[in-house]
User: What shape does this take?
Amino acid sequence: MALLKVIDLKKHYKNIKAVGGISFEVKRGEVFGLLGPNGAGKSTTISIISTLIAPDYGDVLYKGESVIKSPKNLQKNLGVVPQEIALYPTLTGYENLRFFGNIYGLTGRLLKQRIEEVSEIIGIKDRLKDKVEKYSGGMKRRINIGAALLHRPELLIMDEPTVGIDPQSRNHILDTVLELNRKGMTIIYTSHYMEEVEYLCTRISIMDKGKIIESGTRDELIEVIKGNKRIEIRFDKVSDELIEKIRDINYVNKIEIIENEVTITINNGDEIFKDIIERVGETDVSILSIDVKKPNLEEVFLHLTGKALRD
Ligand SMILES: Nc1ncnc2c1ncn2[C@@H]1O[C@H](COP(=O)(O)OP(=O)(O)O)[C@@H](O)[C@H]1O
Ligand SMILES: [Mg+2]
Assistant: This one.
């Protein structure tokens, strides 16, 4: 049985359809990714799963039980790292963690132990006595993550936890996700950064405009664009004649030109090198280098929606 089963969620705000029928399953022990651009409906989906808002339609089953009918069972086993950081700036990191611990019913020695435990995980021990207003974005984010871990949840939901923070904190957070998962925690991770989702997630659902447009492992998703290839060619110069000759190759889908670098997208072109060299040979242009790009989720998204993930 899936740990979490999301069934046909729908939610609108006035005339905005934020979520238009979302379904997916999260298995115990996996890092499940929701990948989509800003406005795709990730946070709305997360808020419904976390029982913060009610859907217009659909349900979420936690261990087979509706979280809308009986939210308690999920709530005590769930940690949520919301997209918007919510901390008390004039309190220290330690005091913030203590406050969140109290919300979970943790007090006394146990609370102290748990604060130590999570400070170790988020790597912030030496800064706990400083006021949060003195923290960098990355530090605040780490406290936010720590707050979600105090009660040792079985399921952790993280909503774009690396947006707007320094690379060091970002890497630390990504490693923390993998480490928590290795110790058995199930994680739902949302992001609009395809590299993060590729790096972390066992299975991924790609979202756009309130819908899931494709789901699978990274490799299964890449299969969607099998046959599509992107090739970067650097020339000594680029002329209209050259571009016309490349455009003329019938399996070339798209040509992007940045100065002397031309990126072409093709499908099923086994003869591409031969064809390119032949066409270029008919001009006075020389090839400096040719680079075949590895397919990634960005291209899957582009293929499915016709737009870039980061517009
Ligand atoms: N509280 C709200 N009131 C009105 N519109 C909202 C609200 N929350 C989200 N939306 C809209 O719903 C859509 C989905 O938003 P959201 O779930 O935040 O997407 P994401 O997290 O993928 O960026 C967006 O068009 C957003 O503007
Ligand atoms: Mg969001």
